[in-house]
């Protein structure tokens, strides 16, 4: 492949637009942002992300950054993590946050929900064993409460345990005392988060106008 | 005989409902007849008619008075009737009683109330009562604007504002504002303009109705009414989005209505409006709406600030909420600002802080009082609408009235369709045609329109009666026709209904997670969007505002933890109330309401027992135990000495004794339960859950030992840096922690193993007095130690007589 040159390549953009569903202006915008973050290099690394000042006060920034480098999210059936990503991968991750289009059939909505929830699931399931174990869930809640000091740390465990129990109760119903609930599988995950309409909530507004000059 | 049998069975089936119907009608009749007498004998101060009071003295009255002032030759009256004195309160009470009985009656006849919405039935009742009163010869009291705006409307609006679902509201605020402002403007000018055109047509004899008057009428009739919308939409349970759109619109269009009403009323005499007036009108609109919101917000902050100090006078907490809100409303009305928006702003602003400060009981009180008042108000409004229809002077003009009705409907539909077309360009979740239909169809008019029309001065507006008739007809049309048909239409169109699921902790976790995730992605993307600003506001709120307005430790409590504790409380209360009887009931708390035998041990990783424990030399372990035990006794003694003199007796509003008795009962019951699904887990239990943790202990010692191994041995409740550490905290052997390799993951956070009364309790139960908490905390201390040591050692020292382990 000719490599990702900084000169806007219309043909390339069109390919990406077809693949990810963004419009050409949006891709141009994101490319500018990509270049800004990577200081005009071709790839982004983790510390490029860490340099974003707004991200510093986000409690789950580690997970977010990690999600960008997770091969499972590149829709190419890979596993593991990479050290640096190109613009195409960046765009692929961003495409998870596109809003649903107006005329979507029920199956399309369901498919979109699965895709987005899969992204969330991958964020939680760090060891890629297909389930979110109690430890992993605890970690999630602890991260969420990580800025609340001591109180957060203690109750985080309790909250995670309670949440796990709830998932188990809803998904498994009856369990014998000696049975063991391995962890939240993707299907269970779908079930418990049915109440949140993910396809309408998990999106951000991608602008057609270039705003990179305004933001850090 | 078959016939008799048939009759009897038919009678039996119908008798139940029939009896109720008969009772209801009897009650209506009785009250209806007493009311006119009440209305007759008391002066009509309640209505404060614009047309002046009617002197209602009847011959009976005069007779009574005459009797009591007779000469001394008459014997001392043992029993005398003096209705005058109590006339007005009596009448008011009678009306409220009638309203409540009607409500009662409707819910006893489910067949009727499932077809006809309550508001329609109430209007019919009002018509009947009004008719009865008129039959008796008295003039039925119409719905006076003062009564309506100052007494009947505020509770409904406050109820709506205080319990306004914030998230959907803020997510859709743009759409709501466009519908409220632009939509109402469109309605006003369309209806007013076209009505003027119709009036100008030859042969209509309405030529003297000029443009401004028509526009004034338009401004009266165009506003969607929150009372009517609430009444109808509450029964049809549509999805949250549509509900908040229509309801939000009905609340926010008040500013537009107020401004245009006053504007047109001012200039109706002049006959024309200059462009300067238009500009001033726009400025006035901004002042009215923003001013109203500002007034409301100020009072809301005052209320939040006041509630910070009410920890010692819990009983009057609800009063502050009501008073501040009502004063916000009245203050806004003084300056002709939008009272409704002030009330909404006050409720919205004060709620998160007040809820963090007040006790659970006060919260319940506020909720129930608001619901009660708003319910009664709503009923009264509709009944009075019916009565006023009978009472008012009507001037029926076929053209005017029918064209009003048709134009309103047409303008509403056109307005909604047109605006949605524009709005959908900016919305992510677009509004479908079904949604648009419901929004258009749900634009009901109600008592606000009636009162505004009633306020018109008949001198300046000779056509007032005609307007009144038209307004009433429009109200009747929307409430009856639209109100009754909207429910089958919703079912027919398969509009999405409200989801009844309770909030689960998983959803809450993921909602928060999503918020942070989306904020992060926005930051990475580089544009400051919706989430970014929301996050900034949350951080500002947390850092500065919460510290001022929330008392004590609760100010630092993150939302997730607050939610978790709220749910724990709820389930704990449910558990204690249900008595934990029989295995199945213990599971009532599961959101799916599905009995589940999943318990904590099912989700604990089984590999834990095989994990190599940090090996403590046996001697050390024994040492630790001895130290802990002795310190426990020391603490107990020290605390006991505080018992009589320094501790405030009442850690809970309930009373400590009640709790103890309840706990004893529950313990006995729970002994019978072998396996309990525990929503609550062990660390940081709030006051209620020692019951359950003890029960778990008694039922599940195996699981418990598994659990506590994972924390490292021994797991003593460690509390960090809590500002409330009481003076009697015993610091066990600091070097123990430093020297031995006790660390499980949790150890490195603390400087030592401290046996402090868990101050997290003080955090989780902010209503407890600090001192009173000690008595309670000491009990928990013991439990924790017992758990840790997992031997029944100090059981003899227990306050309660039950051994912890069976």
TrEMBL record, chain A:
Its main location: other. GO terms for molecular function: calcium ion binding; protein kinase inhibitor activity. It is a lipid-anchor. Residues 112-147 form the EF-hand domain. SUPFAM superfamilies: EF-hand. One of its GO terms (biological process) is cell differentiation. It is found in: Cell projection, Lamellipodium; Cell projection, Ruffle membrane; Cytoplasm; Membrane. One of its GO terms (cellular component) is cytoplasm. Belongs to the calcineurin regulatory subunit family. CHP subfamily. This is Calcineurin B homologous protein 3. The lineage of its organism: Eukaryota, Metazoa, Chordata, Craniata, Vertebrata.
Automatic annotation (TrEMBL), chain B:
It is a multi-pass membrane protein. The chain crosses the membrane at residues 21-39, 115-135, 147-164, 176-198, 210-232, 244-264, 279-305, 335-354, 375-392, 398-424, 436-455. Gene3D superfamilies: 6.10.140.1330, 6.10.250.1040, 6.10.250.2020. It comes from the Eukaryota. Keywords: Antiport, Calmodulin-binding, Cell membrane, Glycoprotein, Ion transport, Lipoprotein, Membrane, Palmitate, Phosphoprotein, Sodium, Sodium transport, Transmembrane, Transmembrane helix, Transport, Ubl conjugation. InterPro entries: Cation/H_exchanger_CPA1, Cation/H_exchanger_TM, NaH_exchanger, NHE-1-like, NHE_CaM-bd. GO terms for biological process: regulation of intracellular pH; sodium ion import across plasma membrane. Pfam families: Na_H_Exchanger, NEXCaM_BD. The keyword 4Fe-4S does not apply. Signal peptide: none annotated. It catalyses: Li(+)(in) + Na(+)(out) = Li(+)(out) + Na(+)(in); Li(+)(out) + H(+)(in) = Li(+)(in) + H(+)(out); Na(+)(in) + H(+)(out) = Na(+)(out) + H(+)(in). GO terms for molecular function: calmodulin binding; potassium:proton antiporter activity; sodium:proton antiporter activity. Residues 97-490 form the Cation/H+ exchanger transmembrane domain. Residues 46-69, 766-784 have a biased composition (Basic and acidic residues). Residues 796-806 have a biased composition (Acidic residues). One of its GO terms (cellular component) is basolateral plasma membrane. It is found in: Basolateral cell membrane. Belongs to the monovalent cation:proton antiporter 1 (CPA1) transporter (TC 2.A.36) family. NCBIfam families: b_cpa1. This is Sodium/hydrogen exchanger. The lineage of its organism: Eukaryota, Metazoa, Chordata, Craniata, Vertebrata.
């Amino acid at each position: 492949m000719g490599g990702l040159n900084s000169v806007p390549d219309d043909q390339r953009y069109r390919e990406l637009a077809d693949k990810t569903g963004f419009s050409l202006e949006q891709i141009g915008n994101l490319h500018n942002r990509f270049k800004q973050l990577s200081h005009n290099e071709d790839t982004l690394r983790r510390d490029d992300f860490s340099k974003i000042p707004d991200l510093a006060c986000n409690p789950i920034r580690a997970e977010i950054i990690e999600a960008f480098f997770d091969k499972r999210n590149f829709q190419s059936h890979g596993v593991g993590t990479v050290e640096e990503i190109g613009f195409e991968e960046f765009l692929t991750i961003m495409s998870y946050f596109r809003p649903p289009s107006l005329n979507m059939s029920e199956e399309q909505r369901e498919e979109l929900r699965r895709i987005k929830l899969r992204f969330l699931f991958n964020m939680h399931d760090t060891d890629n064993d297909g389930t979110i174990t109690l430890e992993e869930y605890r970690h999630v809640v602890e991260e969420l409460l990580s800025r609340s000091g001591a109180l957060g740390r203690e109750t985080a465990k309790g909250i995670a345990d309670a949440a796990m129990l709830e998932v188990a109760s809803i998904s498994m119903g009856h369990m014998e005392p000696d049975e063991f609930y391995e962890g939240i599988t993707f299907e269970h995950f779908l079930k418990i988060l049915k109440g949140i309409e993910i396809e309408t909530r998990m999106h951000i507004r991608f602008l057609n106008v270039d705003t990179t000059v305004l933001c850090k | 005989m078959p016939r008799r049998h048939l009759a009897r069975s038919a009678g039996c089936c119908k008798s139940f409902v029939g009896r109720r119907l008969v009772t209801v009608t009897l009650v209506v009749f009785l009250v209806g007849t007493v009311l006119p007498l009440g209305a007759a004998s008391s002066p009509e101060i309640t209505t404060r008619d614009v047309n002046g009071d009617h002197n209602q003295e009847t011959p009976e009255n005069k007779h009574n008075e005459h009797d009591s002032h007779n000469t001394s030759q008459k014997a001392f009256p043992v029993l005398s009737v003096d209705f005058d004195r109590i006339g007005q309160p009596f009448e008011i009470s009678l009306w409220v009683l009638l309203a409540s009985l009607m409500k009662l009656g409707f819910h006893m006849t489910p067949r009727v109330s499932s077809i006809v919405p309550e508001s329609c039935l109430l209007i019919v009742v009002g018509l009947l009562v009004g008719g009865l009163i008129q039959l008796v010869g008295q003039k039925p009291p119409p719905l006076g604007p003062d009564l309506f705006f100052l007494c009947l409307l505020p509770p409904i609006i406050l109820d709506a504002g205080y319990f306004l679902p914030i998230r959907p509201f803020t997510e859709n605020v743009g759409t709501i504002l466009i519908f409220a402002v632009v939509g109402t403007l469109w309605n006003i000018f369309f209806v007013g303009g076209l009505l003027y055109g119709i009036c100008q047509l030859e042969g209509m004899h309405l030529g003297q109705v000029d443009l401004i008057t028509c526009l004034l009428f338009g401004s009266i009739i165009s506003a969607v009414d929150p009372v009517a919308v609430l009444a109808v939409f509450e029964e049809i349970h549509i999805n949250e989005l549509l509900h908040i759109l229509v309801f939000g619109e009905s609340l926010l269009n008040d500013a537009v209505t107020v401004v245009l009403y006053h504007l047109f009323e001012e200039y109706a005499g002049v006959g024309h409006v200059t462009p300067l007036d238009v500009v001033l009108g726009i400025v006035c609109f901004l002042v009215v709406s923003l001013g109203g919101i500002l007034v409301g917000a100020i009072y809301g902050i005052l209320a939040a600030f006041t509630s910070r100090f009410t920890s010692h006078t819990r009983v009057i907490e609800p009063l502050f909420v009501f008073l501040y809100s009502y004063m916000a409303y009245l203050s806004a009305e003084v300056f002709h600002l939008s009272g409704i928006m002030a009330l909404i702003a006050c409720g919205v602003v004060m709620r998160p802080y007040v809820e963090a400060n007040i006790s659970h009981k006060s919260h319940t009180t506020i909720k129930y009082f608001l619901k009660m008042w708003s319910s009664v108000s709503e009923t009264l409004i509709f009944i009075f609408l019916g009565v006023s229809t009978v009472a008012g002077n009507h001037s029926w003009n076929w053209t005017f009235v029918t064209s009003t009705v048709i134009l309103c409907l047409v303008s509403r539909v056109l307005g909604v369709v047109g605006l949605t077309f524009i709005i959908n360009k900016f919305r992510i979740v677009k509004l479908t045609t079904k949604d648009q239909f419901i929004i258009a169809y749900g634009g009901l008019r109600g008592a606000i329109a009636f009162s505004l029309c009633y306020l018109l001065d008949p001198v300046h507006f000779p056509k007032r009666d005609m307007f009144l008739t038209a307004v009433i007809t429009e109200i009747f049309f929307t409430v009856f026709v639209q109100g009754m048909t909207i429910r089958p239409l919703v079912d027919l169109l398969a509009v999405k209904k409200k989801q009844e699921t309770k909030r689960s902790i998983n959803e809450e976790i993921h909602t928060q997670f999503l918020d942070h995730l989306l904020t992060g992605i926005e930051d990475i993307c580089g544009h400051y969007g919706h989430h970014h600003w929301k996050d900034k506001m949350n951080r500002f709120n947390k850092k500065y505002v919460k510290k001022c307005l929330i008392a004590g430790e609760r100010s630092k409590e993150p939302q997730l933890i607050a939610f978790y504790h709220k749910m724990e409380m709820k389930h704990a209360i449910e558990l204690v109330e249900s008595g934990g009887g029989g295995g199945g009931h213990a599971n009532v708390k599961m959101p799916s309401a599905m009995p589940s035998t999943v318990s904590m041990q099912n989700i604990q990783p089984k590999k834990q027992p095989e994990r190599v424990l940090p090996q403590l030399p046996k001697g050390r372990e024994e040492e630790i135990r001895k130290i802990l035990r002795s310190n426990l006794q020391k603490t107990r003694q020290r605390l006991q000495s505080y018992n009589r003199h320094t501790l405030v007796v009442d850690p809970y509003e309930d009373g400590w004794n009640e709790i103890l008795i309840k706990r004893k009962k529950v313990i006995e019951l729970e002994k019978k339960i072998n396996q309990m699904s525990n929503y609550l887990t062990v660390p940081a239990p709030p006051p209620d859950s020692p019951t359950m943790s003890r029960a778990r202990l008694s039922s599940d010692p195996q699981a418990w030992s598994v659990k506590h191994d994972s924390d490292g041995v021994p797991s003593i409740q460690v509390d960090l840096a809590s500002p409330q550490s009481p003076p009697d905290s015993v610091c066990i052997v600091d070097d123990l922690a430093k020297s031995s390799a006790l660390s499980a993951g949790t150890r490195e956070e603390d400087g030592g193993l401290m046996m402090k009364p868990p101050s997290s309790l003080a955090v989780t139960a902010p209503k407890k007095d600090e001192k009173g908490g000690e008595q309670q905390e000491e009990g928990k201390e013991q439990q924790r130690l017992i758990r840790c040591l997992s031997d029944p050692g100090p059981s003899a020292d227990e306050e309660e007589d039950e051994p912890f382990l069976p």
